[in-house]
Amino acid sequence: MKKLKKDDLKQEVFDLYDDYAHNKIQRREFVKKLSTYAVGGLTVSSLMSFMMPDYVNSIQVQANDPRLDSDYINYDSAKGGGSIKALLSKPAKAKGKLGGIVVVHENRGLNPYIEDTARIAALEGFITIAPDALSPLGGYPGNDDDGRELQRKRDRNEMLEDFMAAFEYLKAHPDCNGKVGVVGFCFGGWISNMMAVNLPSLSAAVPFYGGQPKENVDQIKAPLMLQYAGLDKRVNEGWPAYETALKAAKKDYVAYTYPDVNHGFHNNTTPRYNKEAADLAWSRTIEFFKKNLS
Question: Is-above-0.85 flag for pTM?
């Protein structure tokens, strides 16, 4: 059987996966449409396997890494619906108080990629919290398909309030210096933008390919770093209006668009990952946080 490489796939396959990952088409329709591209020795099953996330072989910082103190905690849900489970991480040998970062997951709960990202950020000298917005429904179920289905059952504005509660938890943590930023991916990018709108004491926000706020942009106080994928037509169509509003309100922002990369380019578990763009975007993110959270 032919060994698949990213260059073997047409852009339409990535666009199709984007529709599937964002609940625009169901799995059965995704498989059916994917069969169109099962040519030249490729099979539908091999295409499916290649496109799905590989968490086992993609972890960069293990959960038991001795350089970190990393464990799960719980904090009160903003809506009074019990508690929210979250991964709290910080350097094991940290000296003094640290800047804080809320790490916000995509539309499928706190999966291994987001936990890994939170640990990676903590190694840069921060205390990080990565909440699971699926906690009231039992938490991330262990696979992304079921995770997406669960997340669809929650109101996104209620989830926003739960992430803002994580901000308050981290801000008051004895190991935090009181300066807290947020980084989020996809759905988490929208959450990051909305936290900037709703939290005047937020110290920095870095939305990765996140949906834009439609109103109250003038309320933003935090400096923004906005990360976009050049091929991401779905999210990028909202950027011109957002930029116009940011400019009109004279907000502190910088925006980067990485050419010829797909939505999800930071996520190293799927073939949408682009190492060069991901590394550059992440280095800019960390530098931005070190500037604003120290």
Answer: yes
